[in-house]
Design brief:
The chain is mainly α. It has one domain: 434 Repressor (Amino-terminal Domain) (Orthogonal Bundle). Helix content is 56%, strand content 0%. The protein contains five helices and no strands. Helix 2 packs across helix 3. The N and C termini lie far apart (27 Å).
């Protein structure tokens, strides 16, 4: 996963993202390090937060632009 790279490119701390997700910083750190599985809901929140696609976060594409969003 590219979570650490995306976060560092934007000069955001783990604590800032953890606060956004309403989780502890060490939980977010475990997501970045692959020590804990990333829940789908959290993946979706991160894709919106970073304005990219889940596929990019997961390393399935090199395209940083998000897909056209579904209308809710």
């Amino acid at each position: 996963m590219r979570l650490k790279d995306i976060r560092e490119d934007r000069d955001i701390t783990q604590k800032e993202i953890a606060d956004f997700l309403h989780i502890k910083q060490n939980t977010y750190s475990q997501y970045e390090n692959g020590q804990r599985g990333l829940p789908i809901e959290t993946l979706c929140q991160l894709a919106l937060y970073f304005d990219t696609s889940a596929d990019y976060i997961l390393g399935l594409t090199d395209e940083t632009k998000p897909y056209k969003r579904a209308k809710n």
